[in-house]
Amino acid sequence: MRYLTIALTKGRLAEKTLEMLEAVGITCEEMKDKKTRKLIFVNEDLKLRFFLAKGPDVPTYVEYGAADLGVVGRDTILEEGRKLYEVMDLGFGKCRMCICGPESARELLDGNQQIRVATKYPNIAKDYFYNKKNQTVEIIKLNGSIELAPIVGLSEVICDIVETGSTLRENGLHILEEVCPLSARVVVNQVSMKMESERISELLGKLKKVIKEADR
Ligand SMILES: Nc1ncnc2c1ncn2[C@@H]1O[C@H](COP(=O)(O)OP(=O)(O)OP(=O)(O)O)[C@@H](O)[C@H]1O
Ligand SMILES: O=P(O)(O)OC[C@H]1O[C@H](OP(=O)(O)OP(=O)(O)O)[C@H](O)[C@@H]1O
């Protein structure tokens, strides 16, 4: 039997992902060691391999088939636009993609005003403004601390993730519009879905059960 390879997202989603895998009997103790520099982990009994990667790289590994499955935020799936199947909502890592800014920027979102939008997610922002709102905007790509942009005058609004709302509150910004809800998803390589359908369906079935039990 060949190894099934699973790409997991580093950072915020990692701990919950490992917990969920553990709940369906997939353990990989070695991977929990925060000090390890090892990149790939093997579960010989289950014929599984795992690795942790930066979020935006997970859809890339999955599209190319270097990983059969992946766990990644919906924001990253939308932004990367890779060819893959999004098959399951894992129900954690819940947050929202929003257009935020000072209250005074609200009026700039009506009509066709040429405003600047700072974001780590240029494709999501482009799709929202150009296709959904029909508003021409200038997208400015940033790599973090997006909330700074409207404060220092780099942009009128931002397109960013809101979870608890603390970052907005502490910086005097507000949600002006909601783009979409987000959470962690399972993605599958399109060929693997056919070639390994039995093993993948079994794994998805087990995950579904755990999610249902957690919901109760
Ligand atoms: N408050 C939040 N901020 C950002 N991402 C969140 C939040 N809550 C849940 N998520 C989910 O977690 C994923 C990001 O996790 P990660 O820890 O890699 O954050 P990051 O800040 O984008 O990464 P990096 O530190 O590498 O820039 C997102 O893709 C999103 O789906
Ligand atoms: O609503 P909240 O709970 O405050 O969470 C939202 C904040 O968290 C994320 O930033 P992150 O911590 O990833 O830092 P970054 O801006 O450097 O990417 C996101 O980009 C927001 O800034």
TrEMBL record:
GO biological process annotation, one example: L-histidine biosynthetic process
Alphabetized PANTHER family for the sequence: ATP PHOSPHORIBOSYLTRANSFERASE, ATP PHOSPHORIBOSYLTRANSFERASE ATP-PRTASE
Record-given protein name: ATP phosphoribosyltransferase
Enzyme Commission number(s) of this protein: 2.4.2.17
SUBUNIT field: Heteromultimer composed of HisG and HisZ subunits.
Compartment annotation: Cytoplasm
Its job: Catalyzes the condensation of ATP and 5-phosphoribose 1-diphosphate to form N'-(5'-phosphoribosyl)-ATP (PR-ATP). Has a crucial role in the pathway because the rate of histidine biosynthesis seems to be controlled primarily by regulation of HisG enzymatic activity.
CDD domains hit by this protein: PBP2_HisGs
Domain free text: Lacks the C-terminal regulatory region which is replaced by HisZ.
Protein origin, superkingdom: Bacteria
Keywords, comma-separated and alphabetical: Amino-acid biosynthesis, ATP-binding, Cytoplasm, Glycosyltransferase, Histidine biosynthesis, Nucleotide-binding, Transferase
Annotated GO CC locations: cytoplasm
Similarity annotation: Belongs to the ATP phosphoribosyltransferase family. Short subfamily.
Functional pathway: Amino-acid biosynthesis; L-histidine biosynthesis; L-histidine from 5-phospho-alpha-D-ribose 1-diphosphate: step 1/9
PROSITE patterns: ATP_P_PHORIBOSYLTR
Main enzyme class: transferase
InterPro entries reported in the protein's UniProt record: ATP_PRibTrfase_cat, ATP_PRibTrfase_CS, ATP_PRibTrfase_HisG, ATP_PRibTrfase_HisG_short
SUPFAM superfamilies: Periplasmic binding protein-like II
Principal location listed in the UniProt entry: cytoplasm
Chain ranges of the ATP phosphoribosyltransferase catalytic domain: 56-208
Lineage: Bacteria, Bacillati, Bacillota, Clostridia, Lachnospirales
Catalytic reaction equation(s): 1-(5-phospho-beta-D-ribosyl)-ATP + diphosphate = 5-phospho-alpha-D-ribose 1-diphosphate + ATP
NCBIfam families reported for this sequence: hisG
One term of GO molecular function: ATP binding
